[in-house]
Design a protein that fits this description.
The protein is an alpha/beta fold. Helix content is 40%, strand content 16%. The protein has a six-stranded parallel β-sheet. Strand 4, helix 5 (118-130) and strand 5 (133-136) form a beta-alpha-beta unit.
Length: 343
Amino acid sequence: MKVLFLTLASENIASSRTRVFQYIPYLLANGIKSKIIINDPYYAQRSKILIIKILQSIHKKINNIRFLFFSFFYKNIFIQKVYLPCWEIRLFRFLGKNIIYDFDDAIYVTDQNQNISKRNLKRLNYTLSKANWVIVENDNNANYAQKCGNPKTIIITGPIECNRYIPQDKPYHENKIVIGWIGSPSTTKYLEIVRKPLQNIALKFANIKLLLIGSNPFNLEGLEVEIYPWTLNTEVDLLSKFDIGIMPLYHDIWCAGKGGYKLLQYMAMGIPSIATPVGINDKILNMGNIGFKANSDQEWINAFEILINNKELRIQMGKTARKLALTHFSYERYTKDLMNCFI
């Protein structure tokens, strides 16, 4: 058996890495061969220089042609978060291809997703209606796919590579408690939700600092803040410095469609979490004693104070979180579910 994958971007982009690239060794171990074609190698790295932009666009079009060419030699066609023309989906249907479409965000929300033009929304809805299988990360996105007419929708949350995200012994940072966050420049805005709670606890505790991975500059008066760029090679070492992981979000449709990946990273690393209970976050936090939900400034403050003051609770929550990650969100857990979509 073999599968042709079309990914949104390269391995450096989290959704493509988690939804495709990190599956490959597990699929190969089960006798499934794969070929990956990257739809946009320059995703999130587009040049502002006109001639380079033109060359990048040509490269993307060439990759799309390559994908179409190789599709003639594969029965299983896996499309990860790419808006293909409707005629291409019709062609795959005519040729009897097994089409699997995967998306991990609420990409149908037009006011939050800059890539979802009317044309792309039409392409998305058509693909969802015609795909043999649709794979999503949560109930909200599953409901959308089913409304588009696809009953064969399965939920795969994450997964998280637990063999890579491994808890490490902490020296407890010279008596500093590290509150950590991992994300991207575009998601730095969510840190504003915890600005006041962090300022409040900074007045009460002199032994805390904030460590941010991948964020834009974020200054916080009265609290030591360290910011590191995100790289695939350094993220695990930086995550290992966290004592408490946070995932603040808005209560809106876009955030309700997120996949909770930050929580899964914290869980796999054995780190207790504090998070806004929106979408899949609420479901994950209900699975065990792994952290706290926080909807208001006071709830954030209370959760911070409890975890800062109780090292043993942090350790116990981290152990529980790690076990849940292994049992419910690992590639070992989900590879068989993915394989059931192939023919």
